[in-house]
């Protein structure tokens, strides 16, 4: 089969590989809509997960089941499915402890284009199909549903990690596709004042659509100072980090009220340590919590997220700024993600 792969750090290209086979619990899926991710860019061009040779890229897909293992109960060839980016081993002790994303090891629930080949192929393998696939409901289009596999689940997880509750004032740092879904998630969870930090005009427009009440430009000066000024020195209840760098945590601690919480889903590619400002952290006694994590995956979460699209509580279509048709278009779509032009939020490639 044909596939689009990372040949080595800094290099991508088309390769031929054997088609994958399903074990008893697994499924083989043919993609019908796929999307490149900022994580693919980090994987290839920043060497974020170390060197990989001829590894098929991609972890965001909606597809059609072509084969299932003999123990799979709820899926059959021909079914249209949403495939979460994170496909844990549900019987692992980490899953039993409530952290499926770390099943069998830190971050190891993230398998596609990490520990095994990804979804930018004519066919790809899904472990534990009954626990990791979700049926695509009639009436939800595949391109929209691809946004659920990583962008929505990750962005919402930022809001979950911060523990947003009714009436909270919330800052979302970063309004790429992930941060935009943190804005939407925080909004659904009841945020009142919602400050979104970013600059690209298309993202700013979308942030307002998803519920941002104020936009903060990080190029106009320290974002903690800007937030403190807007809140008369009080700060906010929750901060969600979906952009920035290691120094963003110090800013987040500064702009947080005592008892507040930070939820971060940002990938940290540089810097060995995260500094916490001692005084603003209440000299160690400020009850300012920091939670950071990889999004959970699996079927139940996907089914719940798609139900938000079905009931029109969440419109993911505003994330898709560039639509390509045909498998070979995955290459320009990934390059677009790498170059991040001003009018880009998220590209999607529809194969069928
Ligand atoms: P983007 O690059 O599209 O968005 C980044 C955002 O951060 C932009 O809005 C950008 O602003 C803003 N930003 C950049 N620098 C700063 C700064 N110094 N201070 C404040 N804001 C800044 O990324 P994505 O939305 O695609 O992804 C966000 C992060 O989430 C990435 O690190 C990605 O790897 C990670 N991720 C994590 C997952 C998880 O499970 N934890 C899963 C998927 C992704 P501007 O408008 O100027 O561009
Ligand atoms: Zn992704």
What is this structure, in a nutshell?
The protein is an alpha/beta fold and 352 residues long. It has 2 domains: 2-151 and 295-350, Medium-chain alcohol dehydrogenases, catalytic domain (Quinone Oxidoreductase, Chain A, domain 1); 155-292, NAD(P)-binding Rossmann-like Domain (Rossmann fold, 3-Layer(aba) Sandwich).
Number of helices in the DSSP assignment: 10
CATH H-level superfamily of the largest domain:
Medium-chain alcohol dehydrogenases, catalytic domain
Instruction: Label the structural class.
Output: alpha/beta
Rough shape?
globular
CATH topology of the largest domain: Quinone Oxidoreductase, Chain A, domain 1
Q: Radius of gyration, rounded?
A: 20 Å
Number of separate structural domains: 2
Quickly give the CATH architecture of the largest domain.
Answer: Alpha-Beta Complex
List of distinct ligands in this structure: NADPH dihydro-nicotinamide-adenine-dinucleotide phosphate, zinc ion
Beta content:
15-25%
Query: What is the level 1 CATH name of the largest domain?
Result: Alpha Beta
Q: Mind describing the biggest β-sheet? A: 7 strands, mixed
Describe this structure in words.
The protein is of the alpha/beta class and 352 residues long. It folds into 2 domains: 206 residues, Quinone Oxidoreductase, Chain A, domain 1 (Alpha-Beta Complex); 138 residues, Rossmann fold. 27% of the residues lie in helices and 23% in strands. It has 10 helices and 16 strands. α8 links the parallel β12 and β13. α4 packs across α5 and α4 packs across α9. The site of NADPH dihydro-nicotinamide-adenine-dinucleotide phosphate has 29 residues, from α1, α4 and α5.
